[in-house]
């Protein structure tokens, strides 16, 4: 059995390899194009692994936090980011954060290993105030990127189509507009020969890349009353009393 430390080290080695670096470069470009993080925004990366994406968002000027179940992954993330990221150990389908706590929540190669993908997505929406980004392995890809992650994590990751992801989003947040795209269209072994051609292929609304990215605004937020005094006095709650832990629609962003 592969240990937690071995998984973390293998994942980090993959990111630093020429092939892994190329894939990550393409993935990060798609993330930035779709998500457009802005300086000063607060961002949670759920399933942050070794902190590669946290480092990207930190360079963009975001105030970042990450959560991951792996202590070894988090240790590498701490080595990269030091005190520039607030790191937590935990599961993405049970986030220890308040409703609407972050401007942005990202799930990047997180749903593939989630115990409950729909619940994970709903948790991301719950703690997001402005928008959510989801990046997953594509079920209809011509590549085999999922095999590399299966090799690293010693478990077969789930894959999703863009239509499945859209259905999950609409189930959790009906009516929100969705932007999406995909990247890495050729087998990984071809990347040195096909890199220039890869750059010419449109990524927006293209369902065949190995990595799918979708983003959507959190139009209706979930509000939880957390101040007992306000609750007892019914202060600051439009429309009357709002019981803790219940969702309320109507806050349009």
Quick tags:
single chain, 253 residues, alpha/beta, Rossmann fold, 7 strands, 38% helix
Can you characterise this structure?
- The protein is α/β, with parallel strands linked by helices and 253 residues long.
- The chain has a single domain (4-222), classed as Vaccinia Virus protein VP39 (Rossmann fold).
- Helix content is 38%, strand content 18%.
- It contains nine helices and seven strands; from the N terminus they run H-H-E-H-E-H-E-E-H-E-H-H-E-H-E-H.
- A seven-stranded mixed β-sheet has the order 3-2-1-4-5-7-6, sandwiched between helices.
- Residues 221-253 have low confidence and may be disordered.
Write the layout of secondary structure elements.
Layout: H1 4-16, H2 18-35, E1 42-46, H3 52-59, E2 63-68, H4 71-81, E3 85-89, E4 102-108, H5 117-127, E5 128-137, H6 145-153, H7 162-172, E6 179-183, H8 191-200, E7 211-217, H9 228-233
Parallel strand pairs: 1-2, 1-4, 2-3, 4-5
Antiparallel strand pairs: 5-7, 6-7
Helix pairs in contact: 1-2, 1-4
